[in-house]
Amino acid sequence: MTRRVIPIVVGGEVSARGFPASEKAFLMIVITPNIAISENEIEEQFIRASGPGGQNVNKVSSAVRLRFDAAQSPALSSAVFRRLRVLAGSRMSQDGVLTILAEEHRSQVLNRQAALARLVDLIQSASVTPKFRVPTRPTLAAKRRRLAAKKSRSEIKQKRGSVRSED
């Protein structure tokens, strides 16, 4: 699934490439047809990655810590937010701020894309409403088959009794 970014302009002009030409413009990240979050709702912090990386690891901040305030986002309904809180688990704070850490790549750009992709996947998963389960009852024939199987099993086990000597 490819992520689409569409330009939304607030009080500005759009350049020839379709992207905003003014500083008041911002981009929307389309997650589902009904959900699109603004790029200014996402806060990114670049930190040093842990683990091996050679001489580069202590000089370059390639890991990305992405923060998204899901509780304050106007794009998420309360039902989607509740499901997102369950899916996010410990990655979401009590205040409803979702934190995603990406440090698997040595490139800052790739880590940024990975963190954003994880956020989009998480919100897409939360946007799917679970199916309502209709409880069903077993049929009469199924009950009879179950009882017949139990009876035959019981007879087999009763025949396993202790062996009596014929003295």
Summed up:
The protein has 167 residues and is α+β, with helices and mostly antiparallel strands. The protein has helices spanning 78-88, 108-127, 140-158, and strands at 4-8, 26-30, 36-38, 42-47, 63-69, 97-102.
Reported by name, the CATH topology is Double Stranded RNA Binding Domain
Q: How many separate structural domains?
A: 1
Alpha-beta classification:
alpha+beta
Q: Count of DSSP helices?
A: 3
- Name of the top-level CATH class: Alpha Beta
> Quick check: average pLDDT?
82
Low-confidence stretches: 6-17
Please state the overall shape, judged from the principal axes of the Cα atoms. elongated
Strand order of the largest sheet: 1-2-3
The total beta strand count reads 6
Radius of gyration: 28 Å
Beta-strand percentage range: 15-25%
Instruction: Summarize the helix and strand pattern as letters.
Output: EEEEEHEHH
Description:
This protein is α+β, with helices and mostly antiparallel strands and 167 residues long. The chain has a single domain, classed as Double Stranded RNA Binding Domain. 30% of the residues lie in helices and 19% in strands. The chain has helices at 78-88, 108-127, 140-158; strands at residues 4-8, 26-30, 36-38, 42-47, 63-69, 97-102. The strands form two sheets. The protein has a three-stranded antiparallel β-sheet, with no helix packed on it. The longest helix has 20 residues, at 108-127. It is elongated. It starts with a strand and ends in a 9-residue tail after the last helix.
